[in-house]
Design brief:
This protein is α/β, with parallel strands linked by helices. It contains 13 helices and ten strands. Its EC number is 2.8.1.6.
């Protein structure tokens, strides 16, 4: 007997798009149905992306010092979060950071800066960085994320070799003014539209856990579908101390998986990327989430640390997936201390029979 979610997947594969009611049914499914939801969503993932995982790497070109008042953001105006704050990296440092991510297995580098939006001088600065990185790594995809764009800036970035532009809508239009007041929802949509019109691949996603309703999550996803976002990063709120959302903890690992699954049902052929907050909120369900999503960030985020890059790559391998664009040869498992391949079990040296406290 097939589940209603399997029937939904079959309907989508037959060309009938998911409705808002379908999306709500996925989001509100009982926890006992989670594996049915994931199995059905995996059918859509497999149809469009096989068993590959796209690996992305963030380079934070300028951190903090932002005049916008986004309530969730550690870099925002009024935030007292203890984060790194610095002005623009130079081109050599941007190249070094990008190269580290590519060496770790990434195929796309996301070049991000804080602020409302770039000046024309900033765009030229990024254009120079892009040219240098692409001269060293011709096959790399580069996604820029510089804030709200002015006329002509998307075209200049495309000319410089930028492949994609990220600007998240973050939440539903009906909820937007609750989380930021220094720019409008329309401003964000306008920038995504400018990027797409210039020939850049549109990358736009959302942040879950901002106090939105189920209906508003659905509203945001259907807006992203309408925008035809090629890549949809799903972020999970990281409630930094020193921000208005510092005490907001509305997410559970099961809900996060359901949100990702809902995104897959609504946008079956789009890149669904597990983005910020992955380790914090999915925790031990990260591998299960890869059955639904087909893209992750490698290593660290803008102002927070992620798990070690090798742990990310191990997560992908252990769940039977392969890194998109990686060579077919298996990756060696290396001992961090010696650099020599090892599969020797770690010997117990603590707990019963010793004077050292147990690992408990």
């Amino acid at each position: 007997m097939t589940s209603p979610f399997d029937q939904l997947a079959s309907s989508i594969l037959d060309g009938k798009p998911a409705t808002e009611d379908d999306a709500l049914a996925v989001l509100r499914s009982h926890d006992d149905e989670l594996l049915d939801v994931v199995a059905a969503a995996f059918r859509l993932r497999r149809e469009h992306f096989g068993r590959t995982v796209k690996v992305n790497y963030l380079v934070n070109l300028k951190s903090g010092l932002c005049p916008e008042n986004c309530n969730y953001c550690s870099q925002a105006l009024g935030s007292t979060a203890d984060i790194l704050k610095y002005k623009w990296l130079d081109t050599d440092e941007a190249l070094a950071q990008a190269s580290a991510g590519l060496k770790g297995g990434a195929t796309r580098v996301c070049m991000v800066s804080s602020g409302r939006g770039p000046t024309h001088k900033d765009v030229e600065r990024v254009a120079d960085m892009v040219g240098t990185i692409k001269a060293e790594h011709p096959e790399v995809e580069i996604c820029a994320c510089l804030g709200l764009l002015k006329d002509g800036q998307a075209e200049r970035l495309r000319e410089a070799g930028v492949d994609a532009y990220n600007h998240n809508i973050n939440t539903a239009e009906s909820h937007h003014d609750q989380i930021v007041q220094t720019h409008t929802y329309a401003d964000r949509v306008d920038t995504v539209t400018k990027a797409k019109g210039a020939g850049l691949s549109p990358c736009s996603g959302l942040i879950a856990g901002l106090g939105e309703t189920d209906e508003q999550l659905v509203e945001a996803l259907f807006a992203l579908k309408e925008l035809d976002s090629d890549s949809i990063p799903i972020n999970f709120l990281m409630p930094f101390d020193g921000t208005p959302y510092e005490n907001v903890w509305d997410l559970t690992p099961l809900r996060c998986v359901k949100i990702l699954a809902m995104a897959r049902f609504v946008c079956p052929d789009k890149e669904i990327r597990i983005a910020g907050g992955r380790e914090m909120h999915l925790r031990s369900l990260q591998g299960l989430a890869l059955q639904v999503a087909n893209s992750i960030f490698l290593g660290d985020y803008l102002t927070s640390e992620g798990q070690a890059a090798e742990a990310d790559l191990e997560l992908i391998r252990d769940h039977g997936f392969t890194v998109l664009g990686a060579p077919d040869a298996p990756v060696e498992v290396l001992d961090a201390g010696s650099g020599v391949e090892t599969r020797d079990p770690s010997k117990r040296r603590r707990g019963a029979g010793t004077a050292i406290a147990p690992n408990a």
